[in-house]
Amino acid sequence: MTALILSLVLFLFPLAYSLGPGNMFFVALGARHGFASTIPPNLGYHLATLVATFLIGLGLVSVINPGSMVFEVMKAAGSFYVLWLAYKMLRAGAVANGAGKGQAVSGMARCFWCSIPKPM
User: Fold this and answer.
1) Which InterPro entries does this entry report, sorted A to Z (predicted)?
2) Residue 44 and residue 112: Cα distance in Å, rounded?
3) What is the value of pTM for the model shown?
4) Is residue 110 in some structural domain?
5) 14 part of a folded domain
């Protein structure tokens, strides 16, 4: 049991504390809107990590083998999702001065950050 807990800690530590886009997102959000604005996305981020770790522990990885139908569907769905996000970003207009001062994270951004444990 101790070896399993050590393995989990060794897996989660770099995930949580590495300098990546997720952590930079929280730093920028906190710097611009204050600490309180980082709480909802932070909860979603850590909930997604917890769910992913739980599913890995249940053996979901054995169901999603490369070449299986589940893997191919997830790969296609993920590709379309990233393309859709890129399209939405390309179509977004410029933000006028003073706009966007109210709500720190929009609905689409909440869904995005809650769906990926470690966005890269």
Assistant:
1) LeuE-type (IPR001123)
2) 10
3) 0.51
4) no
5) yes
Give the Cα separation of 21 and 29 in Å (integer): 12
Q: Which residue has the tokens 């169901």?
A: 63
Q: pLDDT 10s per residue in the chain (120 long)?
A: 788 888 878 887 877 777 777 778 888 888 888 888 888 888 888 888 788 888 888 887 777 777 888 888 988 999 999 999 888 888 877 666 655 555 555 555 555 555 555 544
Q: 19 phi and psi, to 5 degrees?
A: -80, 100
* Residue 92 DSSP class: P
Question: Is 39 within a domain?
Answer: yes
Contact status, residue 113 vs residue 24, Cβ threshold 8 Å: no
Q: Domain for residue 28, yes or no? A: yes
